[in-house]
Amino acid sequence: MKNQNALRARLRDRGIVAEDCFAFHLIAHGPLHPEVEKVDGALHADLMTQHMPLRDEVGAYERDLAAALSEAGYQVLNTVKWRHAGDPDRWALIRTAFADHFPKLRDLV
Questions:
Q1: For the range 8-13, what are the long-range contacts, defined as Cβ-Cβ under 8 Å and sequence gap of 24 or more?
Q2: Omega into 34 within 30° of 0, i.e. cis?
Q3: Are residues 105 and 98 in contact, defined by beta-carbon separation less than 8 angstroms?
Q4: What whole-number distance in Å separates Cα of residue 32 and Cα of residue 11?
């Protein structure tokens, strides 16, 4: 399956056949930021200049969430490699929101 998606590949790496799963539950919170407004005539480069800092921040929270879930004892399908930092206060709010679904996150200090 050359063109399989990332979830299918991660499941396969764990010995799980996606078609054998009864259901998948997606848990998401957000949006964290409003979408960058696409003004008529705006240059792609200008839109990306606005988008990149937001993307970098959200990537940091994705990395931190994957690490926190793993540290709390949950099986995480992939490792998020990201070099940018997020806001610690906002990260605390995000972790609290996900702890409603993953209670062991509450035990992390």
A1: 10/77, 10/78, 11/77, 13/77
A2: no
A3: yes
A4: 28
Q: How does DSSP assign 13-65, residue by residue?
A: HTT--GGG-S---------SSPPPP--TT--HHHHHHHHHHHHHHHHHHHHHH
Question: Per-residue pLDDT tens for 10-41?
Answer: 999 999 999 999 998 999 999 999 999 988 99
pTM over 0.90: no
d(CA 67, CA 12): 21
